[in-house]
Amino acid sequence: MTDIAAPAPQAASDDKALAARPARKYDRSIVDGPLGPAVWKLAWPTMLTNIIGGLQGIIDHILVGHLVGFVGNAAIGVSYQIFIMVIVFISSLFTGMSVLVSRFAGAGEEAKVNRTVYQAFLTAIGLSLFVMAPVGLFLASPLLDMVNAAPEVKVQALPFLRIMFTFSTGLLLFFMLSGALRSAGDARTPMILGLTMTALNIVFNVVLIRGLGPIPAYGTTGAAMGTVSATGIIGIYSLYKLWKGGWVVQFPRGLGWGPDWAVIKSLFKFGLPTGIQGIAMNVGGVLMLSFIGSLAQSAVAQAVFTVSYSELFSLITWTSMGLMGASSAMAGQNLGAGKPERAIQSVHIAARVAVMSAAFIGFFFFFFPRQLLAVFGMHEPAVIELGTQLLRVLSFSGLFISVALTYTGALQGTGDTKSPLYISIVSQVIIPLGICFTIRHTGTLQPIHIWIAILIGHATRCLLSVWRFNQGKWRGIHVDIAPAKS
């Protein structure tokens, strides 16, 4: 199991002094008291934030779909698939941060919480400036070629992708801070920040996509401009609050402002498996787009996949990710407090809520697919046929992925970030891509084959995640960082 060196016994530091104080700033209902309300307290703010954030993406697609057409929808979908593939790896340290923060908060070690958050902040800034920006400037075009983006789609996607990569700092800071606050037991502050960011994004995008007065209509480029503007404003405000204090996490005082390589090493030691997992899943997604791009009606199929899977299905995945975050925090804090049985019970509760939520949304996917697609301006017969087919498959797929994400969060929260990596490679890459590859080389690959391959992959991930968590090997994972140097 993953191990971090225990603190040196001779070190007398601010860590010890602050750890000895009562941890009154942390919500102790997470490790004491009724489980159901504790899980729900962590889950519902993130679920609401993710749903509204997903609706913001849907609004973008609606505006672009009516103004630019389904080619614009395909451009945004292809761009986001590439963008997420890179940003998930870059933000992998936030999972490592969450593992450390939840353990330390559960144990009441405030100084270690704040040290971890500050080092995650420094790393996020460095990666956004020296990795994300260069990737956007120099590799955006080759990445679009890699996914077989149709020429008309690439024209729309290239400026969108370059803007999103180059100005990604605000988004990375938001992800970092949201994870830190939730892991420390505060899910409401990320909700407020997320809702504010979404509101700003909607306003900016409505103006920049459509144009207003002297401001021209930027189309798909305007969607990227609005997103980076909104995330940048929230990022600046977050820095002010972390410096000033008042949140459950803040920048530490009296320990210096330079990088602490021991902490950063710990962030990546726990976080890199999650980053590789994200890369594997998104490479799988990009290769799946390549299969979709090889179909007879590639532009239509890409547009359907973008709207149905990347946007509408996100109503299930983003809701489930709220429960994933709650499971992670509950498991990590209770393990830090020495209560592994409570961690197990909390995860089971979160999984039940996830299934009910996915079933509710899936009902609309199955019985009202045409109406949902029409909202995006999709009325062409070929688009409706493929979209209806995909949404009905996803209505079942959502049940499996919602449970899988909940148990993935639990494993990651305990510090077992390697198991979800292996599970994802098998279920999200090898199995679905293997099915598509086999069918293409033994017959004619049809859209329904791709949709069914996605369903089988999600079902496999669900079964493996539940099985691995129930093995209980995460109980022995040790998490700590060396004391700060005075």
Structure description:
The chain has 486 residues and is mostly helical. The chain has one domain (33-473). The chain contains 17 helices and no strands. Helix 5 (110-146) runs antiparallel to helix 6 and helix 13 (340-367) packs antiparallel against helix 15 (381-414). 57% of the residues are buried. The model is unreliable at 1-23 (pLDDT under 50).
Question: In terms of topology, how is this protein built?
Answer:
Elements: H1 14-19, H2 35-67, H3 70-90, H4 92-106, H5 110-146, H6 151-166, H7 169-183, H8 188-210, H9 220-244, H10 261-293, H11 298-312, H12 314-336, H13 340-367, H14 369-375, H15 381-414, H16 418-442, H17 447-471
Helix pairs in contact: 2-3, 2-8, 2-12, 2-13, 3-5, 3-6, 3-10, 3-11, 4-5, 4-7, 4-10, 4-12, 5-6, 5-7, 5-10, 6-9, 7-8, 7-9, 8-9, 10-16, 11-15, 12-13, 12-15, 13-15, 14-15, 15-17, 16-17
List keywords for this structure.
mainly alpha, 486 residues
Give the structure's gist in a few sentences.
The protein is 78% helix and 0% strand. With 486 residues, it is mostly helical. The chain has one domain (33-473).
Q: Count every helix, treating DSSP H or I runs of 4 or more residues as helices.
A: 17
How much is the average pLDDT?
85
| Terminal Cα span | 31 Å
* Helix/strand structural class: mainly alpha
Main sheet specs? none
Radius of gyration over C-alpha positions, nearest whole angstrom:
22 Å
Strand percentage, roughly?
Answer: under 5%
